[in-house]
Amino acid sequence: MRQRFMIVAKSAFIRNFSIVMSGTAVAQIIGFSMTPIISRLFDPADFGVFGSFTSVVGFVAAGVTLQYCQAIMLPKDDKNAANLFAVALISVFGISLICLLVSCFFTDWLSEILKSIESKWLVWFLPVGILNSGINKTFQAWCVRRKAFTKTASAQMIRAGSSNVLQLVTGFLRTGYGGLIVSTVTADGCASMNLVRQVYADKRLFKESLAWSQIWSHAKEYRDFPIYSATQNIMNSLSQGLPVLLLANFYGTAVAGAYAFGNRILHAPMDFVLTALRQVLFQKASETYNHGGMFLPLYLKITSGLFLVALLPSIVIFIWAPEIFSYVFGPEWHTAGVYASWLVIWSITGFSNVPAVLLARILRQQRNLFVFEMAGLISRLIVLFLGGYFLSGVQTVILFSCISSLLNIVLIVWAGGVIARNEKEGAINISAEDNVSTRKGTEREAL
What we know:
globular; 0% strand; 447 residues
């Protein structure tokens, strides 16, 4: 029986992964085809301000759902998941409202952070960007729960298409960094609207399931997600975004823009795979968990596969990135290529650690992930501040990338050990009949 389940699950995993991958592929092709033009319409300083904006939005958006969107995948019953969906949405609108009030009272301060003192009106796009991100994450999690992978794939294509078209238009109009920001926020909103259709299709389920008592009960039951997972996610976002803000502070927006652009180009092809993988793997792993399947073979296979897929392109980028960037994007982006050649060391390990983070969350290891992320954030901050005061921009990026890569390797090894230990103790590889009671014990231990 278990063997039959694993065969069916494997074929479904591949099919769903292919659906999401196809949408992501189209999105990335659109992005790559437009980037050589866009890079000649905006200069590094524009991308520096744009990078600062996306970093600030990313900090808040990382916790805007309090990570209840991740919990949507876990319950066996769709009615319980519907109440978690409501908890996530309430969080999104509440935090976005707070951000709107902050934008009202601290406009000048936020303008200084964004390096957009001459365009203070851009501050008002911060709460809009945060709201868009939260709605998108919550609706996307519900679509994945319902296996509506065609909806998530089409959302990726809509985001990429609208973003690049708007950036081309604003670029030709010479709007500067404002055009980049407005284009991105608008495109995110368009992508979210596409996901609304699945939620609307399930309106009867929501009507039968939602109750304030159940919403509050599920918020308390899954409280480890906002306490540990959301905080850990915010710290991870800080680790990703702080380099742009601090490089802008120490070396200027041109250096920060070169870093942001190089990082963007590196992550585009990796996101091509990871966007699809995160959605399908989390759904597949949650299903495996609920049916008493084994995680370790899945973990080892996907982690090693991701590393091997990224290895050859990473070697090419490490050796020839400056020349490639100068030729494809223009000579003013040579420095971005230098940064990319070192950032790829961090990127390949970050590309490979996605299964570690996802499976650790399913095993309710939020507390340990929180401690790990805190240590990583402190380490990266020390590197950035020391580099800012004593090193050049390139040397700071090299040191930052090496430290970040080492942290990712430690995370991968730790997660593998946790999964192996749990399977050895029988916490995962259990019969379907005993799964409910065993899972409750595991959750109490994680809390």
